[in-house]
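ARCHIVE RECORD
Type: protein–small molecule complex
Small molecule: iron/sulfur cluster
Source of inputs: curated submission
Record status: active
Notes field left blank by submitter.
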Amino acid sequence: MSDIQITIDGAPVEVPEGSSILDACRSIGKDQPTLCYLETLTPVNTCRVCVVEVGGSRTLAPSCSRVAEDGMEVSTDSDPVRQTRKMVFEFLASSVDMSLVDASTRDWMEHYEVDPARYGPPAPPSVAGERDSHRTGHHRLPGLGTAETVHQPVKVHDELYIRDYGKCILCYRCVEACGPDAQNTFAIQVAGRGFEARISTEFDVVLTDSACVYCGNCIGVCPTGALMFRSEYELRDAQLWDEEEQTVTRTVCSFCGVGCNLDLHVQDNRIVKVTSPLDHATTSGNLCIKGRFGYEYVQDLGDLATTPIDVVLASVRASEPGERRRGR
Ligand code: SF4
Ligand code: SF4
Ligand code: FES
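STRUCTURE (tokenized, with ligand):
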């Protein structure tokens, strides 16, 4: 494959044919903000925080998916680019809880002086199931003086993972991972349109009645913490989640002979979640239910029954099943 030459903010850059503009930017250390893009998934261009200006183009182009062409002139810091990125971040942050996005996204939001508060205080959260029952195309007027939000109770339906769609930016990463990019289970999709759009199972059944096989690959790609291990959720809820105290140990899954790599996240001598490296040829970050969640047999439950984490988790689990109010 031959190389092509483009300019990025006036500097000549040579990249292999077929590279995206984002690839080209990264090849010279000029990273761009991204939310829906992940290197293991097909770009779906839903978030638009990565847009750049391309000479001769009428509209801004998503750098994550637009293929670089020989002679292209790209601007990553023009006024339209800055204003658009700021506006996209502000619309998201005014309507979605983005408190758990990664440090790089937080830095970009600071860089663009994102101020979601200028849309007014957030509207009160929906009650459980309210957003899921909205009919497509029947838009409601937002409350006067408040910013419409997707805030709603967290869905806690099983022991393995929770869905907190008040944190969902509709990046489609989970849909892609559950569908053609990894799992091919197609248990979840986007339902509704416009502001009513949301991630749903078929006929909005609870996850345990859906086609979900609990591989957890959707959790692995979610950029906002909307999908989260139940163990992590409960530790956060009890204010015991402490990433600085956690160790991450890479090992090989013992359940079968495929050889998937696992990263065991351990806190207080207890496995609190399992991830898989994106850059591993066997898994590309994906696992099955056994590798992702089948770690309880490792724990020495006799000793751990009295650790602070277990005592608190036992009381949290005994307290309240089903959907929980946000912010507890
Ligand atoms: S756990 Fe796996 S099967 Fe279930 S929704 Fe997520 S990706 Fe799909
Ligand atoms: S649940 Fe997470 S991965 Fe899925 S669309 Fe929402 S933010 Fe993206
Ligand atoms: S990261 Fe490019 S459109 Fe979302």
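CURATOR ANNOTATION: DSSP finds nine helices and twelve strands in the chain.
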